[in-house]
Design goal:
The complex is a heterodimer.
Chain A lengths: L4 E3 L2 E4 L5 E6 L6 E7 L6 E7 L2 E4 L8 E4 L6 E5 L8 E8 L12 E2 L3 E5 L1
Parallel strand pairs in A: 2-11
Antiparallel strand pairs in A: 1-3, 3-8, 4-5, 4-9, 5-6, 7-8, 9-10, 9-11
Chain B lengths: L8 E5 L4 E6 L7 E8 L6 E6 L4 E2 L4 E4 L5 E6 L8 E9 L14 E6 L1
Parallel strand pairs in B: 1-9
Antiparallel strand pairs in B: 2-7, 3-4, 3-8, 5-6, 6-7, 8-9
The chains are: A mainly beta, B mainly beta.
């Protein structure tokens, strides 16, 4: 597609409910990142995929957070037993290049999924 | 990634130039300087990046100090659509792994009509 697409755009979950957030990166993009953005803060890194391989998950805040990209294209971020502190905007970004030399190019972000846990 | 310092907010008038500063006194020789902006209810958008020389593109210009300890993003003629949070980020060419972009709080740019 023309850009990075994320769905749903908004999600309201009851505390304790599991949620799944979807990211459709730009077709052919190798690298895919997930970020979490709390209200009034900058985005914070969660995890990174190169094709289907999850190469870095150091930013995932707890073992309730799980991400996958089984065929190297669409990715899903799953949050189990949601808590109120999980309320945030979850952003996905993709790039056509792998991490080597990554500093010399930019990423394309989606518009995010706003998750509200009540 | 090395730390950057930006003003919390800036205000400018429509159709005037805007200079957004960023200090990065601990920058290393292999760090690129990247700028992103985030419009309300949108994801961040890549603006420009550079290493040592000044850079121009259709969106903005990037002026990099000779010692590389600071840089300035220049919007030549601001419009209401440029109202956003602007992030200055350092990206290391020499680092391994894939730790993604490290965002600070950025500068909230307000454009007055």
């Amino acid at each position: 597609g023309a850009g990075v697409s994320q769905s749903p755009r908004y999600k309201v979950a009851k505390r304790g409910q599991d949620v799944a957030l979807r990211c459709d990166p730009i077709s052919g993009h190798v690298s895919l990142f997930w970020y979490q953005q709390a209200l009034g803060q900058g985005p914070e890194f969660l995890t990174y995929f190169q094709n289907e391989a999850q190469l870095d998950k150091s930013g995932l805040p707890s073992d309730r957070f799980f991400a996958e990209r089984p065929e190297g294209s669409v990715s899903t971020l799953k949050i189990q037993r949601t808590q109120q502190e999980d309320s945030a905007v979850y952003l996905c970004a993709s790039s056509s290049l792998p991490p080597v030399g990554r500093a010399n190019y930019g990423y394309t972000f989606g518009s995010g999924t706003r998750l509200t846990v009540v | 990634d090395a730390k950057t310092t930006q003003p919390n907010s800036m205000e400018s008038n429509e159709e005037e130039p805007v200079h957004l500063p960023c200090n990065h006194s601990t920058i290393s020789g292999t760090d690129y300087i990247h700028w992103y902006r985030q419009l309300p209810s949108q994801g961040p958008e890549y603006v420009i990046h550079g290493l040592t020389s000044n850079v121009n593109n259709r969106m903005a210009s990037l002026a990099i100090a000779e010692d590389r300890k600071s840089s300035t993003l220049i919007l030549h003629r601001a419009t209401l659509r440029d109202a956003a949070v602007y992030y200055c980020i350092l990206r290391d060419t020499a680092g391994g792994g894939a730790d993604g972009l490290t965002f600070g709080k950025g500068t909230h740019l307000i454009i007055q009509p």
